[in-house]
From TrEMBL:
This is Lipase. Residues 40-98 form the Partial AB-hydrolase lipase domain. GO terms for biological process: lipid catabolic process. It holds the Pfam family Abhydro_lipase. Belongs to the AB hydrolase superfamily. Lipase family. It comes from Tetrahymena thermophila (strain SB210). Residues 1-18 form the signal peptide.
């Protein structure tokens, strides 16, 4: 634990540029090309057809979504649709940056799917709003519950209209916590357009979380208070001029430990050689309020809406206490993909989720010998066969691309 905390501190300080106050000159030429590319640049580089779409939510956030299809093809209509939603402090990028034969996004595209990749409000690609700029405090007043209430429904409506198809949703981490919010609320735009729901590293209850960063925020009130006291609304925003990619090129193990503060990483099943590319895209940014929401639920060991305090709760919810997120109301099939050593989606927390999914007509559960990040950066992506098996069940008339 001690070494992890030190590394976490160094990582946070370096990310916030306090540790290296003068911008360390980094020779970007020593980095792999993909390290500092935006998503469309990376797809062009790898020769996957890519489109950019802007989706405006009911509360004014303008989200940037990307759409890709099989390598060496052009975007066409009629393919079965997958919408893949990333996790906390993450973006569309990491879904497609593992080795080409192991990156889940690229595998899905090459399997003949029309793949849409979301970017949550407040990450590096989704910093626009119809009324506010990122310097306005109002812009940052959101947590994952607003992603479930607004982002997911807006995306379902947009993608189903654009493709004239129902949607297979794959969430990773926070991409699942927001989907559980949307489904428990019976958001019509989601339910009307949903084909299947696959949850990778699923999170709802987070009382047993082991991620050092989140655990510390959950348990140490002084830490979260100190962050709030700074008045910083944006938490770990994306920075181009990072030291981490270089560190990862030369000492992948150490670099792995750094990201381990946020997620878990383990050389025996994660592709640490690819870390220098990954950290060029991480962290991707979110709101401090969102981190507080995670911290609240870690502390309370409950899955609740954001606690604004008694007065604020009356204002937002008409009651003194923040309401429970009613997982038992979820009435669609849920396919859980769980990592045995996942430090964010701890198996015992997933078990609470599973036991509360009493309204779902079909809950399936697959357990794999790896961690939270392995779904994106794993060395062994055999689990993707099981993902395709579920997708095939829902897409009998699957359109395969013949190379
Ligand atoms: C990435 O780094 C290369 C090499 O320094 C540079 O030419 C390119 O402009 C950078 N790309 C971005 C998006 O910053
Ligand atoms: C894509 O095109 C490149 C260059 O022509 C070729 O080497 C590669 O095998 C192709 N890959 C696929 C999956 O079609
Ligand atoms: C988002 O904001 C930036 C900076 O103000 C602007 O350049 C860009 O065109 C905006 N994009 C969209 C989709 O509104
Ligand atoms: C990494 O995984 C291996 C094999 O599961 C395990 O023996 C080892 O303790 C793990 N290392 C860490 C740092 O968790
Ligand atoms: C990959 O993982 C699967 C189970 O998820 C296991 O059966 C298989 O042996 C693993 N392959 C390698 C090369 O480790
Ligand atoms: C539940 O879903 C799995 C995966 O798609 C499928 O194989 C199974 O037949 C389903 N079971 C029921 C009872 O629908």
């Amino acid at each position: 634990m001690g070494i992890k905390v030190i590394i976490l501190t160094v990582a946070l300080l370096s990310l916030s540029n306090c540790f290296f106050p003068t911008k360390t000159p980094i020779d970007l030429n020593h980095l792999p090309a993909l390290t500092n590319m935006t998503f469309p640049e990376a797809m062009n580089y790898l020769n996957y057809p890519v489109e950019t779409h802007y989706i405006t939510t009911q509360d004014g956030y303008i989200l940037t979504f990307f759409r890709i299809q099989a390598k060496n093809t052009t975007i066409k209509s009629g393919l079965p649709v997958v919408y893949f939603q990333h996790g906390l402090e993450d973006s569309s990028d990491t879904i497609c940056l593992n080795d080409e034969e192991n990156a889940p996004g690229l595998l899905i595209a090459n399997e003949g799917y029309d793949l849409w990749l979301g970017n949550s409000r407040g990450n590096r690609y989704s910093l626009n709003h119809t009324k506010y700029t990122t310097s306005d405090k109002q812009f940052w007043q959101f947590t994952f519950q607003h992603m479930g209430e607004y982002d997911v429904p807006a995306a379902f409506e947009y993608i189903s209209k654009a493709t004239n198809q129902k949607i297979n949703y794959i969430g990773h981490s926070q991409g699942t916590i927001q989907m559980f919010v949307a489904l428990s609320r019976h958001e019509k735009k989601v339910l009307n357009n949903l084909k299947s729901y696959i949850a990778l590293g699923p999170v709802a209850w987070v009382g047993q979380i082991k991620s050092v960063l989140l655990r510390s925020m959950g348990e140490s009130k002084p830490l979260i208070d100190a962050i709030i006291a700074t008045g910083i609304q944006q938490f770990l925003p994306y920075k181009q001029e990072e030291v981490l990619p270089l560190l990862c090129t030369y000492v992948p193990q150490l670099c792995g430990l750094t990201l381990e503060a946020l997620m878990d990483m383990n050389d025996s099943y994660d592709n640490l050689k690819r870390m220098n590319i990954f950290v060029g895209h991480l962290p991707a940014g979110t709101s401090t309020l969102n981190m507080r929401h995670w911290a609240q639920n870690i502390r309370s060991k409950e899955y609740r809406y954001f606690d604004y305090g008694t007065a604020g709760n009356y204002l937002h919810y008409g009651q003194a206490k923040a309401p429970k997120i009613e997982v038992e109301k979820i009435n669609v099939p849920v396919h859980l993909f769980v990592g045995q050593t996942d430090e964010l989606a701890d198996v015992s927390d997933v078990e609470i989720l599973r036991q509360n999914l009493i309204g779902s007509p079909n809950v399936t559960y697959n357990l794999y010998p790896f961690g939270h990040a392995s779904f994106l950066i794993g060395k062994n992506v055999t689990f993707m066969n099981d993902v395709f098996a579920v997708l095939n069940d829902y897409n009998q008339k699957e359109t395969k691309i013949q190379f």
